[in-house]
Protein: V-type ATP synthase beta chain
Organism: Aerococcus christensenii
Amino acid sequence: MAIEYLGLNSIEGPLVVVDGVRGAAYGDIVRFRTNRTHHKVGQIISIEGEHALIQVFDSTTGMSLENTHTTFTGKGMEIALGPDILGRTFNGLGKPLDGLGTIHAEVSRDVNGAPLNPVSRIYPRDYIETGFSAIDGLTTLIRGQKLPIFSGDGMPHNELAAQIAKQAKLGDGVDGEFAVVFAAMGVKHDVADYFRRSFEESGAMKHVTMFVNTADDPVMERLITPRMALTTAEYLAYDLGKHVLVILTDMTSFCEALREVSNAKQEIPSRKGYPGYLYSELATIYERAGIVKGKSGSVTQIPILTMPNDDITHPIPDLTGYITEGQIVLDRSVAGKNIYPPINVLPSLSRLMKDGIGEGFTREDHEDVANQLFAAYSSAIDARSLASVIGEEELSDLDKKYLAFGQSFEKEFVGQKADETRTIQDTLNLGWDLLRQFPKTELNRIDSKYLDKYYDDLTYSYHTPLKEGTLEEGER
């Protein structure tokens, strides 16, 4: 039964204290009424005896100690869910922003989710095709995985996120419907409009659900937004059987909101002023991905975060790396070469990639081609360093080949047009095109049976099939 109290004990920033509270619990939703028309929502974040500390998901302007009516609902934050939630746009608290009215709800779910028994998880295997060669070929996203993107201020992570949401799809031969849940936290209005316009113009909006928290929205709302998105994804995956890709941008805004609330609560800070429970807060979000026994759907996560000062050792990317299964790193020096997406492939990795590629998943030669591309690009970086010391003309012929390979690899393999989508076959064929710059004897990471099958067969080419004799005899 909901109980209403009149008056507050104190107001400090987004936090209020109510005395004499009985029968309430941590995490319960609280509703405030300051007059007949103005309502606000909050959540209990601490209870000591009969004192309840409540964080308000709105500005506390207009609330007074004497005339504020407080109602304790006795239940946590919930979101109404139904099949028609796809194609809709909501704010961080699940209220419609598209003017299409409320959802015809089949169920209501607590946004904090339910603990998932690790024994009920299925190991991720099948891949998701994003259309980007640098991701699909070298850091393959596996269905049920959590693979973050580490970016920096001013980098094109918003464009990358929107393009992944528009063109991502299930791998070949995989049954099931695909859906995207997109959550934006602390973004500017023009960025929010860009996401909406991008999805609508491409026709992708029909299988996308958006949650948008803008920079001028209450900071408390930012803490709920990813949980709203993940609860929606779990409903689509485990109730409706869809394969759902969740894109969360920007997790740095979420962490900074957490720090702001922690400071308001006068908690003892940890690294860089963030609360000591930052790790567990991130884990409660990232761990809500996976495949569950007996369920036909899946939840895959791509959290995007901007590294403060491009520092990969900062607490946010550092802790994210501990929890997730790899990372895709956007590099400012690569972006400076006018390469999109500016992915630095050497520090990027996907820890689940090895079990979701190869014969029966992508193509039999995938792992060997990826290993050889990594090795060749690493040698190209070494050749650049050497050339900067002794001069390019002093390099050996082989080092000069690696130098040329590094340039073509960045421009042709990593770099793509903003509207270009490549299949996994396109990506692997392009990889072979680049590796044919070297003689067979230099490709020591590829099994001989794959060299015999793919190296000389120019039908496995991303470009227009080459004529015989295009490669010089000495390069074969």
User: Anything to note?
Assistant: The chain has three domains: 4-72, 78-355, 365-460. The longest strand covers residues 39-48.
